[in-house]
Amino acid sequence: MTSRIDRPSGTNVNRRGFLAAASATLASAGVLGTSREARAFGDDGAFEPKILLAGGVSGAAHATSPGRWSAEVEKRTSAPARRTPRLMKPTDPLLLDGPFAYWSGTSSLTALPSNEVAALRQFFALGGLLVVDDADPDVGTFGKDARREVARILPDSVPVAVPNDHVLYRTFYLLKPARPYGRLAGTATCDAIIHAGTLRVIFLAHDLGGALARNTLGTWEMSVEPDGDVQRERAIRFAVNIALYALTTNYKDDAVHAPFLLKRKASVP
Amino acid sequence: MLEPTSTLRTAIIPADDLPRALLTIAVGAAVVSVALLFFEVFRARARGASSSPLRRVLVVVTGLLATLTFVAAIVRPQRLRAREVSVAPRVVVLLDRSRSMALSETDVANGAPRIDVAERSVAELRKRLGGRVDVLAFGNGVPRVDIELPPASSALMRADEGASDLSSALRALAASPEDAPTTIVVVSDGAVALPDPSTLTGGPKIHAVAVGNGSPKDASIRAVHVAGAAVAHQALPLRVEVGCTGGLSCGDLTVTVRELREPDAALGSSGSGGSSTSTSSGSADGSELLATGTASVKDGTATIELPVTIERAGTRALEISVGAPKDDAIPENDRRLLTLDVARERVRVLHIAGRPSFDVRTLRTWLKSDAAMDVVSFFILRTPGDDVSAPDEELALIPFPVRELFTEYLPTFDAIIFQDFDAEPYGLTPHLPAIARYVEKGGGLVHIGGPNSFSNGGYAGTALARVTPVEIPKVIDVSQGVDSAPFVPVRTPAARASPILAELEALMATSDDDLPAFPGVNVLGDTLHGGVALWTHPRRKTPSGKPMPVLAIGDIGDGRSIALGLDSTRLLASGPSAAKNGGRGFDALFRGLLGWLMRDVRYEPVRAKLVHASGNSDCLAGAPAALRIEASPVLGPARLRAAFAPITAPRIRVGEDAPSTLDVPLDATPPALVPLGAAAGLPEGAWAIRLGISEQDVEPALGALATRTLGACERGGSEWADTRPNRDNLEKLAKWTGGAVVSPGKEGDLPTPTAALVALERTVSPILPAWAWGALAALAMSLHWFVRRRAGLA
Q1: Chain A: residue nearest B369 by CA?
Q2: To pair with B323 at 20 to 30 A between CA atoms, which of A226, B111, B482, B742?
Q3: Contacts (Cβ under 8 Å, ≥6 apart) of A117
Q4: Partners of B210 in the beta sheet?
């Protein structure tokens, strides 16, 4: 496999270069006035951790983390990703544009109004996946309140622990040990609401966004405890795996992958 | 023969309303009365009564008279006058007009056809039987009044039925409202299906004229048995019976099974043949070898089991042939042409995506949600340029098995979906010719858009472009391969009328909505290979000035192909527009497209079959043929267009006409029969038939929107499987009914049927009124009493 898309005509314009150029051209031409129009052909289905503004949340708990998440996905995988994720209220129709949203915070949440509950219910009905990231898991207020609100949105669903052999831990990286990672060690498992075998809501209590946050100078904003950079790398890999799960669901559960993955699992210490 | 005769008959009969029991009682009482009378007279004489003999005689006479009038008062006699007519018996001659009657009457290959002999025999029977003789032709189903064709007509035209179902013919005669025949004469070679003897009990006598004295030297395929239903990708056991007759020395015969396809559908087919019993290889004439084996003939017959695996569902044509010795006199029955409806247990789909995206996720989720779909996915998750920051061992990635997929496993898939996949970097380019052949030989292809699809994927000018229903333009720069301006596709009239997108159209009509705005499109050219654009771009034109196709379908050889120049159809599943209908638009779109691709009958506008003109049996070469329309999108007056493409070289005889196109009005209310070809019928062969039916004033679409089916016409079919006449069958039939069997020319030896009597007029009138009989009885009784008293009797 090669990374470049060489054309028969000898051109050396590659896909990502082309997409960036196309977006830039359209933007400079004043065509891209709204986020809806900001999509370019080929970028429409790109990974984007849309930041959910609900329950009093006004942005991501770590503002740079969603962009970093996209950047890591784009850098490490073939998946396209939107480097500047949008902020959206539950009632924003564009929330339905991509089946993935990111809800993070540190403090308590206000109860969602009924129209937002209905809008998020529709988001899930159309196959949406929501990652709830408690950025202050030691206190746990956000995580607790988020569970309360999710219970209102999906009253018939109960969070269960994601088993460590779940495909979430091998959608791209073979995570060893198979568990969630973030800025803090947190619990050895994460909870999730699972519908028809597919994850709908992932509850993280490890401050994943904190491990991803990086300022414009390229400096990590938060220190990662207890294992420092090793743990940060695992958190990034976990974030990439979540993104690939959002893009491919249980692809790595397909039988065709089984013999390869079993062999690799055996070889990785 | 007997002419109708009239006779008058008179008789005295009891009153019609008299119960039989009462008549018996009356007669019994009379007998007892007479007995008692004589007893009294003799007893009086014995005891020396003083009465004279004359008086005793008078007692007896008046007693008898009283008894008679008593009985007459009860019986009330009437006079009957009946005029009766004797008519000639109804005789039905059943003439076998099945195709076996076109064979030689003797063991000489070019001897007189059996039908000639049979027709002469029927003429002789008419002459001898005279009167009411009905000649009916039988073959398949209900017998019909025989129509004698001019003697110059070929034997094939005069023996044009595809079966010899004598059982159905006799059953239809018994159920007929006409008066039952007193005698049936069957004129046949005896190669017939006999009825159950119990059904003949109480019926007319059946005689037979046995035509045929032998058969030429012949090797043939006697029968092909298919065990169970044919299912794609699964071995189907074929049991082939071969036979040799007429003293032909056969020994070992090679039996071959081939799948027939349109010749252009197999261009460049390659592969190796072999002597194994189950193999697969292509040939230049479009057929593909499925299996071959050797049958060792003993006592004139042999049976061989040949398992074959048909990879494609739908109607498929097989040629089963036997390599006959050179003395074989009837080469037409050395092969059988069969059409099989191959079912699909599961749809096996190969889904290949160039990169993960929400569009890929949506399609994969949809594919996996269908339990009848067996999905094998390969997504390119990493390119060498990606910095994974980890050794390979820590990655859950596997190599893309491009060689194995597109060589070893390719035929096992029913459809391949390329989604935003670049052919060049992943080693696909060398396999594009194989993929093109796969489509031409019956596979399904879906090419979905994206920045790496179509022109940008390096597909222009490749073998894959050959099987894509739109032109893939060559581009200098990737920016020329896509148009990033948002747009709402225009739904063409074909899309609105086709069952393929009917569900999506209905969904949009319900929610009063249009398609969503899509963020760009792959630049495509005109439709090719009879392809049909279902969606077009509202602004972009092709170089020829036509609206640029966005979604197009094409019928390519034996396979089908779809080009979808969008990378965001997921907006039908999860976008703001999708919220209006619960995201069901995506399901409706892909259910229709995949259903059409897999030839699901729900998405086929027409169902039709090539049959014998009677509609009752398979098509026979040299006999009138028809298209039997079994399902139509239009009911009532309609217009039919059809195009025929041979999938094996037709074997044409004088006067026969190979069909090419058809454009006729018809009443399309199924089942409808559309006559085909010249008066002399179709030649021997097999065709791919594309059909379109529309309202009368609309031109039916062919191309990709047509229904494609396969049909075959055999020269002899099962009728020539065994060319020997079978007199034994006729002997059995005659024996069961008390009839006789004679040879042609000996019709006079058949017993003459007796005339049937028919009463035309019947008049009944009373001799005396009932009260008169009663009065006479009373008078006679009084007289008898008086005489008895005078004679001294009590």
Answers
A1: A196
A2: B111
A3: A90, A149, A152, A153
A4: B188
Q: Is B371 on the interface with A (CB under 8 A)?
A: no
Q: What percent of chain A is helix, strand and coil (3-state, nearest 5)?
A: 40, 15, 50
Q: Average per-residue pLDDT in chain B?
A: 87
CATH code for position A59? 3.40.50.12140
* Chain A nearest CA to B559, separation (Å): 26
Q: What is the DSSP string of A206-224?
A: S-HHHHH-B-TTS-BSS--
Q: In chain A, whose CA is at the least distance from the CA of B449? A: A42
Closest CA in chain B for residue A121: B579
* Interface mutation target, options B359, B381, B462, chain A, most CBs of A under 10 Å: B381
A101, A141, A235, B374 from A162: Cα distances, Å: 19, 21, 17, 27
* pLDDT surpassing 90 at residue A207: yes
Tell whether A84 is covered by a domain: yes
In sequence order, what are the residues at sequence separation of 6 or more whose Cβ sits closer than 8 angstroms to the Cβ of residue A245? Answer: A129, A167, A168, A171, A199
Q: What is the pLDDT of residue B142?
A: 85
Say which of B377, B395, B578 has its CB closest to residue A126.
B578
Question: Residue A40 falls within a domain, yes or no?
Answer: no
Maximum Cα–Cα distance for chain B, whole Å? 156
pTM above 0.90, yes or no: no
Chain B residues touching residue A42 (CB < 8 angstroms): 420, 450-452, 482, 520, 567
Q: DSSP assignment, residue A47?
A: B
Domains identified in chain A, total number: 1
Taking residue B328's Cβ as centre, other Cβ atoms within 10 Å add up to 21
Q: Do B383 and A2 touch (CB under 8 A)?
A: yes
Q: How confident is the model at residue A25 (pLDDT cuts 50, 70, 90)?
A: very low
CA distance B596 to B590: 10
**Contact between chains at B382 and A41 (C-beta distance less than 8 A):** no
CB contact under 8 A, A233 and B359: no
Average pLDDT estimate for B42-64: 82
Domains defined for chain B, CATH in brackets = 5-86+759-790 (no CATH), 89-215+724-754 (3.40.50.410), 218-342 (2.60.40.10), 347-597 (3.40.50.880), 607-720 (2.60.40)
Does a structural domain hold residue A146? Answer: yes
Per the domain annotation, does A15 fall within a domain? no
What is the number of other CB atoms lying within 10 angstroms of the CB of residue A253? 15
pLDDT over threshold 50, residue A196: yes
Burial label for B201, CB within 10 Å (0-12, 13-18, 19+), is: exposed
pLDDT in tens, B164-179: 999 999 999 888 888 8
* B484: nearest CB among A1, A41, A264: A41
- Rounded to a whole number of angstroms, the distance from the CA of B537 to the nearest CA of chain A is 15
Q: Which residues of B touch A29 (CB under 8 A)?
A: none
Going by DSSP bridges, is the β-strand pair B672-676/B684-695 parallel, antiparallel, or unpaired?
unpaired
Domain containing A184: what range? 47-267
| Nearest CB to A77; choose among B386, B427, B477 | B386
**Residue B396 to residue A246, Cβ atoms within 8 A:** no
- Crossing angle of helices B53-75 and B770-790, rounded to 10°: 160
User: Which tokens in the block code for residue A240?
Assistant: 């990439």
Quote the tokens at residue A65.
């983390």
Which ipTM was obtained for this model?
0.85
Which of B663-702 are b and which e, b meaning 16 or more Cβ less than 10 Å from the residue's Cβ?
eeebebeeebbbebbeebbbbbbbbbbbbbbbeeeeebbb
Please answer yes or no on whether B355 and A80 come within 8 Å at the CB atom. yes
Between chains, do A76 and B384 touch, taking CB under 8 Å as contact?
Answer: no
Q: What's the CA gap between B76 and B15, in Å, rounded? A: 6
Chain A residues inside the 8 Å CB shell of B349? none
> Chain A within 8 Å of B587 (Cβ-Cβ)?
no
